[in-house]
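Pasting as-is:
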Amino acid sequence: MLSRLSSPQNETQNEEGKIDDNPHRRRLVGHRNERGLHRVMVAAARAAETASDNPLIRDEFAGILTGTPELMDLLTRMASIFQSDPQNEAIYRHMVDYQAARTHFFDRFFADAAAAGIRQHVILAAGLDSRAYRLGWPDGTTVYEVDLPKVLEYKSATLAAHGAQPTATRREVAGDLRYDWPRALRDNGFDPNQRTAWLAEGLLLFLPGPAQDRMFEDIVSLSAPGSRIALEVWAIDEQAKQAIERQRERAEELRERLGDNVFDPGDLWYQDDERSDPAEWFATRGWRTQSVPGRDYLAKLGRPLPEQANEEPLIIGTFVTAASPR
């Protein structure tokens, strides 16, 4: 949960252009504004982890990207919410640990892909991700970042103002993942005949089930033999749905105390009952898949989950990797 920017109220449309029938998403102050706040929240967590005594990851650019004048008021309001009571403080610490662990996992995914000779990497819904700047890419590597134009413009301008330079060839691909983003990717130099490492981190629940599957189809059609993908997968079973509802009630209680200035990420999640399981989807198409529960990876890194079972389904996913047959 975090505070949200003010903006004229809009109705949210689904990927077919119809008015979204989810009452929680419809009452939000603009779907894209709220999705942008989620990007800021993730980067702020990476910045907090980097500044900690024993960080799991180092992202020196996260603090730069979240420390601009445009975002200072937002970050101040975020802090006031997370510090409003002990429960919110515990949720915040849990969130930072989880973001650090998933960043660590996907950093290793790209490192392993590069070590295997893959030189074409695509980050879907890149947001404020700074891997094109902070990872040690081999010579000849190209990193494609797919996201909305204003997000990409903000990131590149902010980092350029601080003298930051990418450590690989970085190419911005302005596009909406619900529509014809593959054409924009190819227009920016992407070669479907080269092996590719794909990343969809913190993305799938923000897509309706049909849009998710169309994106997977596009990825497969663009992937040369030997390509790879890494995904963050969240299973929305009945237990998780109950937890999401409890979190929604918690957000409403906070709005009553702190004003209509509280953002619950669960408001933006699609909970399609018939959503495809990504690991199964790729496995049925011949890709070799592996799944690592976020809980297990946190424990492996020395950040075991606190005993807060009622919060866990909201912020703990599974890290899935898949490799296409050669």
